[in-house]
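Researcher: Quick sanity check before group meeting.
Model: Go ahead. Protein one:
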Amino acid sequence: MIQDIAANHTSTLSNGEIPVAAGIGLRACHYPDFQIGKPPTAWVEAHSENLFAAGGLPHRVMQQVRSHYPLSLHGVGLSLGSMDPLNKEHLQQLQQVISRYEPGLVSEHLCWVASEGRYLHDLLPIPYTEDMLQHVSDRIDQVQNVLRRQILIENVSAYLHFADDQMTEWAFLNALVRRTGCGLLLDINNLYVSSRNLGIHSDEYLVNLKADAVQEIHLAGFSVETALGQEVLIDTHSQAVWPEVWSLYRRALQILGRRVPTLIEWDTNIPPLDVLLSEAQKAQYILENIHE
């Protein structure tokens, strides 16, 4: 199935357009698979920061990947919710990578990852207040002006509510779209994790989210931990997509529409590439057969 989907979208390579199909996130352990062959995936997403160095293996692999597949770039380091000034060097490096590979989509997370110049290596949620909305909007405007293109903003998993919250996450995201013209990347796994941890109603979230702003969907697997005697879901991207997340994915497509590219992410305990491709096949089947 995926072989056919990938073959049907070779025409998108000239302009980098991401097809409405299932793709996979490229990780270093799978570089050899892409060096020796052309794995059957419709498109590929890479972490932007992995390409910030001037040369080396990541670029050798990416040059080969980009000659065969549409590409999306996904960032984890802009720290849009931080109080630190935007990292101009980071932004310049991102601009250079975009110019070099001409990705169809560029995305970042709605979070903060740095404080006073120290990077914390985690995607930390922000309070949904009017002040924070203005702050993040201003930073998205700066980023899009430098890059001269739209970026997508992804929802992150949450494990607590902020006492100062003035709006829901979906209302905050909708407001960002209105103020900046950014797009949205909807991570279904993150939504499910947050809904279980915080009691968020997924249907209300999906019904109210600005549907035409959603340009990409992510799917991944979570882990289950126990804290203070309570079950907590952790966004680890360490296993296959859970059945509950597949169900929420189907519901999201019914509500938002099925014309959205979908990505399988796997970041720890990464299995052989065939496992990711199998997960992508499941997503592709749902994309092709869902009834809106």
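Researcher: Fine. The other one?
Model: Protein two, sequence then structure:
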Amino acid sequence: MMKIFKKTLLAAGLVGVALSAAGCQSADSTGNSASNKSLSVVFLPSDSAKEATAARTAVAKELSKATGKKVTVKTTTDYNVAVQAIASGKAQIAMMGAEGYIQAKKQSKDVVPILTHSGKSGTLSDAQYRSYIMVPKDKAASYKVNGKYDIHKIKGKRMSFVSNTSTSGFAIPAGALQQTFKLKNKDDLSQNGKFFSKVLFGGSHQGSAVNLLKGDSDVAAFDDTDLVQYGKFTNDASKVGADFKINKDAAAPFDAVRGKESIALAVYPVQNEPVLVNKKGVTKTEINKIVKAFTSKQVTNDPKFFAPADAKVRGMFTKDGNTKFIAISDKWYAPTQKILGE
């Protein structure tokens, strides 16, 4: 699986993306040193949704129990703010995608990964998820050439990405499109009237999917891990033609598009996201305690951390087979860093 991952991403020709500023919601905006009695953990917009409250609370409680410190949760409405928070030390811990990690690492050498979640096997061999380029099912036939879905037909359409610092919601699909269409400048993909007639940013994977299903965009990029709590794939999720259907009882923001379906024109594997720490605010001893706590059977079996896809209360991640946290170092992300030119 990892060989496939490397080949796919190398073909995508990914490069880094620029950061910008936006807003962050938090009870504490101050930085903390390792000697302080409190820690802050920042979450991406996709994990800042109301339905993820129980999962965020569980993460904070486990961190507090492991370190003996008060833990403040920081939710965000923009990927860039989460990156800035962990890089600057205003947050000492972050749940973030691989692209966000690499961008934060550019700004601070003190940002390091300590954990990721495994694949179904319970190992790192399949520790990956998927990024999709999707179109509405009722329009999917118009993207076929000689009976097969053709990505070339998206040029000139209205496109929705997640954020320009999202790994699976921009960096990977944009890099793949740059390679496919032999574009000199990937920035053209994020500007109105260049490659696409209009470009939207949903702010989260949920937001990008809603843009598509409400008809605000013709095409959208988003991942599977942030969407499976709201729907399910009705066929093989790993191949072009994957059909994702929103549940009839899906919570907001999908309550207005329940039952609607989208079809994948492209599917790309992505390395699972890391749990990051900023070493200026977390001691080595505390890191060891956090790793021990999060790799324990208690956390592995806690549905607030790993919940079944059909669970009524969303977990931080989806439980699939032997999914669990595994300790990692920066070396595990070498394939992604190589692709991004780091």
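Researcher: One line on it for the slide.
Model: The chain has two domains: 38-123+273-340, 128-271.
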